[in-house]
Design brief:
SH3 type barrels; globular; single chain; L,D-transpeptidase catalytic domain-like; 1 helix
């Protein structure tokens, strides 16, 4: 059982929490039907009077605010690479920094772990993790987001009988806890390899930086085409703080290492929401010795324009498919799988 001392009970996220959001109330004649739910994925975004970045700014919406989406549409005002806008209560927001969390739900906790560790997917808009220090005092740690992937390594109960999963950070090898209802366990059958119709050597991934598109092929047959976000060059300098260029490298490579979950960023142990810490980055396919990878992305929705520190950002569902389709096949239960994998060509 988890220690009682200074235990912090975390309430489950639900739509009831929407009542506390700092929105302007809708006009009486506005429909209340939602077509989706979004989470503000940046430190702040603006609420606009019209679907245009040039329109009047009505309010600031803070990180992790939940936005009932009343309508989604393409605006003639753009921006051209991503003209998708949402009508929300009181105005309009651009979709670029709004993560859709339409599939949010709670989960029935497992009674026991059948394996040493299981993958798990966060299925609520966000959940707060906690770490127990040496004094058995609970301290907030990372906030974990919808569609991020983590390693479940134990199941424990708090003094009130609520189940919590112990998650293990594969990079820092530290433990932290989240309510088990917030994470869906994934079993090997859930992420089994997709069988291609051609030999492994005939598969390839092509990335066009000028088009911000990724295409996957089996021989001459295209099996996927999606928008991506590649590396955004640093203004005033060509390299990041660790001397690795933030532009996605051009050339021919191969998927070499696959991590189903990866803690990216600086690797600090911190609860600071503004820190460059991205635990649980989903479905990673590393193809370059400097650490560039194809991977899922939960911190923006601005695909079609460069956004990353050099990696190739994909929507989580697209990264999941590519992870299962590409070689080397991932071996369940391993932190990672390495091998000579699928060809990756990055062109202008």
């Amino acid at each position: 059982m988890l220690p009682r001392r200074a235990f912090l009970k975390l309430g489950l996220l639900s739509l009831a929490s929407l009542a506390n959001l700092p929105w302007k109330p809708p006009l009486p004649e506005e429909p209340l039907e939602m077509v989706g739910l979004g989470r503000v994925a940046a430190k702040l975004i603006y609420l606009y009077a019209d679907p245009s970045l040039r329109a009047e700014r009505l309010a600031k919406l803070q990180r992790d605010s939940l936005l009932p989406i009343l309508e989604e549409f393409t605006s003639p005002e753009g921006p051209a690479f991503n003209p998708l806008w949402y009508r929300v209560e009181g105005g309009y927001v651009h979709s670029g920094h709004v993560q859709r969390v339409d599939g949010r739900h709670h989960n029935q906790p497992l009674g026991f772990l059948s394996e040493k560790r299981l993958l798990g997917r966060v299925t609520v808009p966000y959940t707060q993790s906690f770490r127990v220090n040496k004094y058995e005092v609970w301290k907030p740690l990372y906030r974990l987001y919808y569609d991020s992937i983590h390693w479940i390594t134990a199941i424990e109960q708090d003094p009130e009988g609520v189940a919590w999963y112990r998650l293990t950070d594969e990079r820092l090898l530290i433990h932290y806890y989240v309510p088990a209802a917030h994470v869906k366990p994934l079993f090997p059958a859930d992420y089994a390899p997709i069988q291609a119709e051609t030999p492994p050597e005939d598969k390839r991934i092509e990335v066009s930086l000028s088009q911000q598109r990724l295409r996957a092929f089996e021989g001459d047959r295209q099996v996927m085409e999606v928008s991506i976000s590649s590396g955004l060059p640093q203004k005033g300098q060509s390299q990041s703080a660790n001397d690795i260029p933030t532009e996605t490298p051009l050339g021919s490579f191969r998927v070499a290492t696959k991590f189903p979950a990866r803690h990216m960023g600086n690797g600090y142990i911190t609860a600071d929401l503004d820190a460059y810490e991205l635990p649980g980055v989903p479905w990673n396919m590393f193809f370059h010795h400097s650490g560039y990878a194809l991977h899922g992305t939960y911190w923006h929705n601005n695909f079609g324009t460069p956004m990353s520190h050099g990696c190739i950002n994909l929507r989580p569902e697209h990264a999941f498919w590519l992870f299962r389709w590409s070689d080397p096949p991932y071996q369940p239960g391993k932190w990672y799988t390495a091998g000579r994998g699928t060809l990756v060509r990055v062109v202008e």
